[in-house]
């Protein structure tokens, strides 16, 4: 190609950098707002952040209803062009809609020829990412791929017999390899997630780039706590292991009078409500369902500790939001959570799927002296600084332009102990 997408003017002799021209970026996602999950939230924040920096952003995603087509949508206060594909509802899941696989290449070819983007950045290899990567590669368009997906997370919604699930996982990873092979750069939110992707796909050089967060949107609360309130935020689904959290709450001493607030919706809501009744803690568990961003920030502010029992997190935006709200975190020692939760610094890690160990760690935080609790809260604020969304946006801009990139440092060493 004679004209590199997003090419920029060389720096003048005095060493100052001239302004680079805005890019036309096409983001492809199998899940996007109004869906509520980590991948959708990242794609939404990425798109909005790029628009705020002056780029022309287009999003290709399944339609959220029967209405499909191209129109302007506003997300995070920024206007962008949305190409909503005709979609079907996947009824084993409580909200999932998917683009039609056998029409995806035709649709992607049409959109690419209309938009003529400088770069395609897909967020999933499953349907939209596969179609975009195939058609973008034919047209010589630069491709960046990001993985937020673990095949195991979808197994409970496939209705596949357990006897064939292992084979299905292997097939899913092979499909991922084929799609990500078309990308000039492959990213995922943490180093552990990068190692995980390389292990199961055979890819090399996967970059660890944090999803990022705008910490200024959250309000740390250092007032003396008036109650012991544990908070969970996320999809109410099986892989989140919220049942482990409920059992841990039931094991806490009665004198702590610990309350649990669960923010989010999902297919396991009724089962978990029934479990809370069975455990005798229904009067201390609040199921909020989906809430507005304002109510979510309020929930973070009134909590004492954030709990994340999931064993399938490639990063966990909810945990990052909790840290930006100055909450200590009790999390499963699994997947990428230890990248966020430094044991004994800004929280505690517990043995995955072990409610008794989780109860011990929750009790430790809830019984902390005010000075110890404040130290953990301030550690969360310090650690979240490495995940600033502006750093993430700058890194992706460089990848889009084909510039050399040094992966952001997204792990911060614990603060030195005072002498």
Topology:
Elements: E1 24-28, H1 38-52, E2 56-62, E3 69-75, E4 78-85, E5 87-89, E6 97-99, H2 104-115, E7 119-122, H3 128-138, E8 142-146, H4 155-158, H5 162-180, E9 185-188, H6 191-201, E10 207-208, E11 229-233, H7 242-251, E12 259-263, H8 269-278, E13 285-289, H9 293-302, E14 305-308, H10 317-324, E15 329-332, H11 337-340, E16 347-350, H12 355-366, H13 370-384, H14 389-401
Parallel strand pairs: 1-2, 1-7, 2-4, 7-8, 8-9, 9-10, 11-12, 11-14, 12-13, 14-15, 15-16
Antiparallel strand pairs: 3-4, 5-6
Helix pairs in contact: 2-3, 7-12, 10-13
GO molecular function: glycosyltransferase activity
InterPro entries: Glyco_trans_1, Glyco_trans_4-like_N, Glycosyltransferase_grp1
Protein name: D-inositol 3-phosphate glycosyltransferase
Question: What's this model, at a glance?
Answer:
With 419 residues, this protein is α/β, with parallel strands linked by helices.
Characterise the protein shown here.
The protein is of the alpha/beta class and 419 residues long. The chain has two domains: 24-212 and 388-401, Rossmann fold; 215-385, 3-Layer(aba) Sandwich (Rossmann fold). The protein contains 14 helices and 16 strands. The strands form three sheets. The chain has an eight-stranded mixed beta sheet with strand order 3-4-2-1-7-8-9-10, with helices on both faces. A six-stranded parallel beta sheet has the order 13-12-11-14-15-16, with helices on both faces. Helix 10 (317-324) crosses helix 13. The longest helix has 19 residues, at 162-180. The protein is globular, with a radius of gyration of 22 Å. It comes from Luethyella okanaganae. Residues 224-375 form the Glycosyl transferase family domain. InterPro entries: Glyco_trans_1, Glyco_trans_4-like_N, Glycosyltransferase_grp1.
């Amino acid at each position: 190609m004679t004209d590199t997408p997003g090419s920029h003017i060389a720096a003048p002799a005095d060493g100052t950098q001239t302004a680079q021209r805005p890019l036309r970026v096409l983001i492809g996602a199998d899940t996007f707002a109004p869906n509520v999950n980590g991948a959708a939230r990242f794609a939404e924040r990425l798109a909005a952040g790029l628009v705020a920096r002056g780029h022309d952003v287009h999003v290709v995603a399944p339609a959220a209803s029967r209405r499909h087509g191209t129109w302007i949508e506003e997300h995070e206060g920024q206007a962008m062009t949305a190409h909503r594909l005709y979609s079907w509802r996947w009824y084993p899941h409580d909200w999932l809609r998917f683009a039609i696989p056998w029409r995806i290449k035709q649709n992607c070819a049409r959109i690419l020829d209309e938009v003529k983007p400088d770069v395609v950045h897909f967020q999933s290899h499953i349907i939209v990412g596969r179609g975009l990567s195939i058609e973008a590669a034919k047209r010589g368009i630069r491709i960046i791929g990001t993985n937020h997906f673990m095949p195991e997370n979808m197994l409970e919604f496939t209705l596949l017999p357990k006897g064939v699930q292992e084979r299905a996982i292997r097939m899913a990873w092979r499909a991922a390899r084929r799609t990500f092979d078309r990308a000039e750069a492959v990213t995922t939110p943490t180093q552990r997630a990068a190692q995980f992707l390389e292990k199961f796909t055979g890819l090399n050089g996967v970059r660890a780039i944090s999803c990022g967060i705008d910490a200024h949107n959250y309000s740390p609360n250092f007032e003396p706590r008036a109650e012991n309130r544990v908070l969970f935020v996320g999809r109410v689904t099986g892989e989140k292991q919220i049942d482990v959290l409920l059992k841990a709450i039931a094991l806490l001493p009665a004198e702590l009078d610990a309350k649990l607030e669960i923010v989010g919706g999902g297919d396991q809501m009724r089962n978990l409500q029934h479990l809370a009744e069975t455990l005798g803690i229904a009067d201390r568990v609040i199921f909020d369902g989906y809430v507005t961003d304002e109510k979510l920030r309020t929930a973070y502010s009134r909590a004492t500790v954030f709990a994340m029992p999931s064993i399938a997190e490639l990063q966990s935006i909810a945990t990052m939001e909790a840290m930006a709200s100055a909450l200590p975190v009790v999390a499963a020692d699994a997947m990428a959570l230890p990248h966020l939760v430094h044991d004994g610094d800004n929280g505690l890690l517990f043995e995955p799927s072990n409610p008794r160990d989780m109860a011990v760690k929750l009790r430790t935080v809830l019984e902390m002296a005010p000075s110890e609790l404040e130290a953990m809260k301030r550690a969360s604020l310090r650690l979240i600084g490495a995940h600033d969304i502006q750093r993430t946006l700058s890194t992706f801009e460089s990848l889009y332009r084909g510039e050399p990139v040094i992966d952001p440092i997204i792990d911060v060493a614990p603060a030195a102990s005072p002498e």
